Amino acid sequence: MEKSKYIIRIIFVIAIIMFGKFFLSSSMLFFRLLVGVGLGYALTRAAMGFAGSVNRAYNTGSTKLIKVLMWMFLGTAAVNIAFLYNVEASSYGLWINQINLGLILGGLLFGFGMTFSACCASGVLTDLVTGLPRAGITLLFFGMGVFLGFPLQKTASWITDSWFTTETGAKLSGGVYLPDLFKWDGLNGYLGAILLTALFAGIIAYIAKKYEEKRVMKNTYIGVESEKEQYKIYPEDIKKEFKLLSKSTYEIIFVRPWTMRTGAIAITSLFALLMGVTKMGWGASTPYGFWFGKLLLTLGVPVESLVEFTGKSSKVFTMAFFSHPINTQNFGIILGTFIYFILAGTFFKVFKSELKITFKDGALFALGGLAMGFGTRLSNGCNVGALYTPIANFSLSGWIFLVFLILGGIFGNKIAAKIKG
What we know:
mainly alpha, globular
């Protein structure tokens, strides 16, 4: 009976994915869906989220996630050299973001907001499965923040203009492309750029390590339950012989949590696939503003008013949802989370775990979503569009965003602690 239950789960998941193949209008959209599924699956099974990097450290003392993210950023940047070396970098859709007041304020706002919603732009998608009320409220107000920020993002010089720029940055949207600073290094600037990226990652990881040690010394280190589960040792693995068609094998392949290191390797691989196939990195947040516009359109707001306010094409508000590649990829992230819990047999338990919230909680989730959404327009991206992808693309802006994201997260956690008592 148990074996048939496992087989049914696997067949159900395969059927869901194959439905996407026949439902979507192109192979590229199907590719985007599969990448999204992979990202959602990896983020969920490895219990990783960009928001947790600050929140976990502040609330529990654990900086394991921050350190893993630093090495993931470095590893992804190293892999990207394979695509960018000996080609015109501007031929790729690199995220060399502007360095300006908008980047700083956007980082502060985003860090502040993710404190109250306990998620970020990608995390809100995975959390639609694990914490629907929290994630649903966050996503609605996140979209509102993005929508309200569209006009400012388009017209404000302190968002559109960069204080510093380099040759390649000038060919794109502005900003500093690290290889431009090391053209003399013998490897078209990439040797210097990857060494500088390693230095930045190492500094952050070292600070995180010392912070965790300080929390341990002060007896304020709590730790994270999911991290303990990830590194749990299973004695039965040593005692039992390997059997392909067995419960233990199924649990190893589909159920047991991945370590964050495994998750980071999976995400890095998926990012590399995106770069190779689409010539672009990972983005998530801009479509949330389009979704909010679609909601307004449904409520009777004329599309002309949406276009006039946002400066966007009417197409983004009227096109079919699954015609947009990032919409499809974002949906895939939700689907990937769903697939993991279906295969693990814990979907209903997890789904029901956060269904009850208070009005006060809802208000804080709304505040978090609004702050994050509006912040993405100031910084031209979220935790993937202003942090991960720019760092992987050798943009100095990603490291600056990270610093102010952390500062915003610390401030937000201090305020949240006072509000929650």
